[in-house]
Design goal:
By secondary structure, this protein is mainly α. It has a domain of about 230 residues. Helices cover about 75% and strands about 0% of the residues. The protein is built from 15 helices and four strands. Strands 1-4 form a two-stranded antiparallel ribbon. Helix 4 packs across helix 11 and helix 11 packs parallel to helix 14. The radius of gyration is 22 Å and the shape is globular.
């Protein structure tokens, strides 16, 4: 464990996670409450990106519809709130059950296809969800709905920025730790093997589709929880959360940070949203600049931030030649 912490690819993101713990104190000292909300948004999207990475990075399932589960999570808070229900456990139960059922249904259908077919079907399901929530005029329709009764757990109200930030940060740290364990666990090894060659995995007795479906459903539920947190942060739920653009942003975060890596989605979300905020303060045409930067990154085929950090890792020195063998070489 200590050896891995000495590597830049592990040490840098761990330090960044540790620094995030000082954000509330820094925000209070500077009198700028904006920073808590801003970094809470980064942490929430990092949770969603890490969740998607389970399916995309580990399983090779390029889903362009994971915004569907963010939206379901957001409306799991908004709809009960409309009916004056602020119990967080009710919100969480609705979120988990809904995302599990929808994930099972859409995943089972989508996994019957491969490649571009899988991408388009997941996109189609997300768009169907978008129009379903647009049609719910009782809950604001296309305009969305404000959330009055935010999630409350044992007196802890997630409608307050600081408690929400701590909950989100703890969830992110646990999710990153679990992803690291999963990556080298038998389940993760089968999943990564199926990404490279599903036929070979099937040939040795594993049903790769079952593993991919399980990863897809777990990813959907975790994205739903991120959606819950986002709804509590903004005190608002809108069908725009289900937009395919949001799904695309999550994929860009993962690719930017490092596809299939443990810390990549977190670092990708941090750089993506951080750069977006900086460019907004510099120019009104920030989207054009940001789009060009992403295009150049894709064109250069960089291995992501995690991949670049891995290049700085020190190579292990070559093992020393035993003394007798060295003497033989000298007299040869």
């Amino acid at each position: 464990m200590l050896d891995s912490l000495r590597k830049p690819g592990t040490l840098a993101p761990v330090l960044l996670l540790a620094l995030l713990a000082f954000v509330p104190a820094w925000s209070q000292a500077s009198g700028e409450s904006f920073w808590v909300a801003f970094f809470a948004r980064i942490v929430i999207y990092a949770i969603a990106a890490t969740a998607l990475n389970l399916a995309l990075g580990f399983g090779g399932l390029v889903s362009l519809g994971h915004a569907l589960y963010l939206g379901i999570g957001a409306y799991s808070v908004a709809i009960p709130s409309f009916h004056e229900i602020g119990n967080g456990w009710v919100h969480l139960a609705i979120c988990v059950v809904s995302c599990t059922l929808v994930g099972l249904l859409t995943g089972a259908v989508s996994l019957r296809t491969k490649g571009i077919g899988f991408i388009m079907i997941t996109l189609a399901f997300a768009q169907m969800g978008y129009f379903v929530f647009v049609s719910l005029k009782q809950y604001g329709g296309d305009d969305g709905t404000p959330i009055t009764y935010t999630s409350e757990f044992f007196g802890l109200n997630l409608g307050q920025a600081v408690p929400l930030y701590w909950v989100a940060l703890v969830i992110l740290c646990l999710l990153v730790w679990w992803s690291a364990r999963l990556r080298v666990a038998p389940f993760g090894m089968v999943l990564r093997g199926a990404r490279e060659n599903a036929r070979r995995v099937n040939a040795i007795g594993y049903r790769s589709t079952r593993y991919q479906l399980a990863a897809y459903v777990v990813s959907a539920v975790l994205c739903g929880i991120a959606g819950m947190l986002l709804a509590n942060l903004t005190a608002f739920a809108s069908p725009s959360t289900l937009s395919w653009i949001v799904s695309g942003d999550l994929i860009v975060m993962i690719v930017l940070g490092g596809l299939g890596t443990v810390f990549g989605p977190f670092m990708g979300a941090l750089v993506f949203l951080g750069a977006e905020e900086v460019l907004k303060s510099v120019t009104e045409s920030w989207q054009a600049v940001f789009g060009l930067a992403i295009f150049l990154i894709a064109l250069l085929r960089t291995p992501g931030i995690a991949g670049l950090l891995a290049r700085f890792e020190r190579r292990k020195p070559a093992p020393a030649t035993p003394a007798p063998l060295q003497a033989v070489k000298e007299h040869a």
